[in-house]
Amino acid sequence: MKREKKQVSGRPKKKNKKSYNTGRKEVKIETASIRTLQRRTKKLRENLKEIQDAAKIIKVEAKDVTDVGEHSEQYTNTILRHSKESALAFFLENDFSVASYKALVSDTISRNCPIYPCYDIVHQAMDECMPKNIKVSEIEVMVPLQEILNKSTERLCESVALNWSEEALYKLKLIITLGFDSSSGHVNPHQKCKNSENESSNPQQSLFVSSLILIQLRNVDFDKVSWLNPTPQSVRFCRPLQIALEKEDEEATLKEHFRLKKEIEQLLPYRFKMSNGKSARVQYDIYETLLDGKCLNTIVKNKASSRCPICLRTAHQFSNLADNFTASEANLKYGLGLLHCEIKVFEHFLGLGYRQDLKSWDVRQPAKVDFEERQRILQKRIYEKLKVRVDQVLQGHGTTNTGNVARRCFQSPELFANALEIDVQLVIDLSKIILCFKCKEELELNKLERFCLQTYCRYYELYPWARMSPTVHKLLRHGCDIARQLPLPIAYYAEDANESWHKYYKRNMVEHSRQNSREHRLLDVFNRAVYMTDPKISLMLIDSRVNKSKTVQSNLSDIQEFIKTK
Q1: Of 50, 140, 498, 512, which alpha carbon lies 20 to 30 A from 109's?
Q2: Where are the annotated coiled coils located (predicted)?
Q3: Contact by Cβ (8 Å): 215, 535
């Protein structure tokens, strides 16, 4: 047995307690020695790579974490609402109807993101685009030339000239080109004419359109270019003057020509105050070059389509190489008609290829079967090499020989010439000449004129039996003379934009016009054309349109010898 220890009286027994205050005090990290720091950070240093990776992940995730109380105002302000002008530009760029735009506005409001103004505000921006004194009837809508020019000048200066000095704004000159053309195949309206004469005398499926293109704004005193149209062949700067349900005949052409001529003579310089209070004064310099061959022949009173509209020589006289083909100065001012010129040259090469076996331009009845057979063979060969269909009839639209088809063939002149079995160098030379006139650079016209003359002589050396087209003759013998009459390169005066408008008019007649009366139908189409071509609205999205354009930029290295060095 264990003997119990006796407790000594007067002394209480001590409890066995563990003390936590004994030992060395812990040193703070700020005052620790190097050895202590090494000991404490040993585990951290061993796992340094994992810790660094974790820190990177936390840093990325922390960017998305926001303190609502501190940063709420900052994030609310990042919602950028459209102004009425930018909303109108968005409306037109995406081809919205009124109903589809209202649906878009309602949807964004329901999602607490009201970035688009209501349609009433957009309509205010539309009203600001409109010129005064628009005249409407059952068969036409028109605006005076002075009114559309004044409104265009005002809107253009508001976009590009707000920061200019008053001295620079006082003597401005706006260069414009205008003209007219017609198109067919439009949908016949269902509304009945109030005037029975209009019902019987006006073909409702034809549209006769007059337009103008803004080209350049410059200061007269300083001889400085203030603004140059970046896309002269785009519809966005091609403003409507008149839309009429009328066929393009001699009477309608001369009537519109003399109307425009009279209005040009009566034009006055425009003085106005800009939104910043500065005064501006603009005078107008106008050229009538947006014409096709048919309109030009009517204006210069050329009754025969086989006659050159510039020198009035016939196709049988073109082969006289000793003739200088002196041009009428009055006829040079109407431009080259570059789009139609390219198409006619393309069609002339097709005609050469079809007649290679015959060696005669006139196709008589015994040889007609062989001619048509060769025509089918060459059309098939062109499709195999270039993937375009040529000389195919389209119901209500003429043929497939369009500007795009001609451009595609001239971009590959060797393939085109080989498919037609004609001289390759001749096709290359003519494609170079067309490219020279289409480029927007200043040209060495004397050098180009000599090259055109060489090509002209080479043509008759190769094909003395061929009957040269008046358009090919005009291009080679008068192209440089026409270019000398114009202050800017001839590409700025081409009629591409005027031709391109026809497809928009056809679509807008159906999709963006009221069908309750003929006046409303024509007025809505005219108004939408005014909105789309307003300079202030068009310049808003110009960069995005240029960037997404699918147009292949022409290679100017082949014609570098004809371009003036700056």
Answers
A1: 512
A2: 34-61
A3: no
Q: How far from chain centre, in Å, is Cα 117?
A: 27
Instruction: Give burial (CB, 10 Å; 0-12/13-18/19+) of 517.
Output: middle
Strands (E) across 23-95 are located at none
Contacts of 350 by beta carbon, 8 Å cutoff, 6+ apart = 378, 390, 391, 401, 420
Q: Could you count the other beta carbons within 10 Å of the beta carbon of residue 455? A: 19
DSSP lists the bridge partners of residue 286 as 176
CA distance 206 to 198: 13
Task: Give residue-wise pLDDT tens across range 308-336.
Answer: 999 999 988 999 988 889 988 889 999 99
Diameter of the chain by CA atoms? 155
**Tokens, residue 333:** 């001012």
Which has more confidence, 366 or 50?
366
Closest CA to 227 of 169, 281, 161, 272: 161
Contact 485, 333 (CB under 8 A): yes
Task: Give Cβ neighbours of residue 460 (< 8 Å, ≥ 6 apart).
Answer: 319, 321, 468
- AA identity, residue 413: P
Question: Tens digit of pLDDT for each residue in 487-538?
Answer: 999 999 999 999 989 889 989 988 888 888 889 999 999 999 999 999 999 9
Predicted TM-score (pTM) of the model is 0.81
Residues 472, 345: contact at Cβ < 8 Å? yes
